[in-house]
Amino acid sequence: MVPRVAESALAGPVASPTSAPAAARVDEETGSGVEAPGRTRRLWWTGWTGWTRRRQDLAVGALFLLAALWVTSRLWLDPAGRVASLYTGDPAQVQFFLAHSVRVVLHREYPFYTEQFNYPDGVNLMANTAVLALGIPMVPVTLLFGPAVSFVVLVTLGLAGTAMAWYTVLSRHLVRTPLAAAVGGWFCGFSPAMLSHASWHPNIISQFLLPFIVWRVLALTRSHRPVRDGVLLALLVTAQAFINEEILLFTAMACGVFLLAVLAQEPARWSAAWRPLAAGLAACALLAGALLAYPLYVQFAGPMAYHGLSDAVQDYGNDVAAFFAPGSPTLGGNQRANINLAPNYSEENAFFGWSLSLLAVGVVVWLRRNLIVRALAATGGFFAVLSLGERISWWDRELVTGPWQWLVHLPLLDAVVPTRFGLITSVVVGLLIALAVERAWALRPADRRTVRKLVVAGLAFALLPIAPMPLRMVSRPPVPEFITADRWRAYVGPDQTLVPVPVPSMGNTHGMRWAAATNLDFKIPGGYFLAPRNGNTGDPGRFGGRPSGVGQLLEEVATTGRTPKLDDRQRRRFMDELRHWRAAILVLPVRQQHVEPLRRTVEELVGPGRQELDVWVWDVRTLTDHSV
């Protein structure tokens, strides 16, 4: 029931959709159901199945879970031995953070900063999305089965949970028809943008709190107890901040733009809405601010804090043509065709395809008399434009300068990846689809059959090309037995590091998986993370810590297979770096690509090593001990 439920969020109290009579007639302006006295008609879904609301919810939830298992099926076959086919760094980073949550719970380790990687400088975890709100509940799974299993569990539940959360909010507060809520929730949980992030970013696809945050914000505009409702909103906001702050910022911006779009059309609503909204938001700001004050202080002013992302990431934008192409992980997707339309395959934040793009426009035109539809259209269009980045392009040809250029250096926005604004547009499209299905199922009997057929045909035509497919996976090297059998413990002390060869970096994250497999019982230098340039707190961010001579040398050998010649000056400089890291051993897997050139390079640096189980080991404690 679109106007009485959704628009009432800005107008006044309204009965719950579940308490409204089943009989309905059509509102002349909106076409949605309105009560019709004197008639009793069973809703079509209860007439066919006789299911209660709870059973309907369970059935829809089971469908979403099966879909999520289908999408992640190839990863479930071997969680520790498979990884996304293109970029392997993000899963290793997330697994490292999941292992950190184990240490927080079991060893009471400080949650917001760690020296377990990038030793001795450490890493500001609040500035690196350490997913504490996901990792801490997953501690039992991580302990029993390892962080790789926890990763695939989070991806599966992130997709299914987000879809179910949107279905729940839609079915209770926006539409009466379960089919409408299910289709809208389906798209919000399994859109091409969500599938794009699924292989790498469980923190981004875990959006199951966002529908409730959005609804609580809208409910504040008509609340009779705004302080209580503001407190509830603050708890949701705080939890989301420990999942992903960027998505929380997007949600706040989207709510603001939507409310402005509504009020611009009907300014009279403001007189009734501003008092409870202001009181509720003030209560939310006070409580959430108190709960998040210290973590945010660490994030922005603590050790290894950075201000703003690197220019390369700030310029990540969607190509206009990306909105008309199917996403790579979908039935109609084509990776080669999409290669120049997104920053990379993990950031395909548009990719609706021609059919869905046309359907979305058609829904807006069809339901243009509906206030909520117009406000949604304005919101989705606004963020679609922002997602194009600083330079708007068409098929990789620059056209004009985008409005993002004027916003990119503002506080908070300087840490945003603009292409991800497309995630907001995806949610808007899902809501428009739900409203279209609701409208079709609420028409007069004389018009209903034809319109329903057209809507179903349109949905099939639009959604089939972007139907989710199993995520592409490739095999990855196992964690060495030398690590899993705890043979490293004979060498590495609590204030020393194990140095994987090559040194962990954005492009070489296997060493991070080794540490995660032990729940971070040993420290490593380097790693994949965001930090201030050159390790100076407050500088702009970059991927990785201080430039490392040893790291760059070994990475070049691992990439090219060429063994360099080292002079005495280089050896002394590299030894100083190993001392700075307090290196105990260097470890090179025997199955590492270009293992022989790497072995010869390390031997030229620190002398002969020896093979132990499935790795080459160099014990350098006598060379790096500061007391010697």
UniProtKB/TrEMBL annotation:
InterPro entries the record matches: DUF6311
Keyword set, alphabetical order: Membrane, Transmembrane, Transmembrane helix
Domain DUF6311: 64-408
Region (Disordered): 1-35
Stretches with biased composition (Low complexity): 11-24
Top-level taxon: Bacteria
Residue ranges crossing the lipid bilayer per the database entry: 58-77, 144-167, 179-198, 249-265, 277-297, 351-368, 375-394, 421-442, 454-471
Name used for this protein in its record: DUF6311 domain-containing protein
Organism listed in the record: Micromonospora coriariae
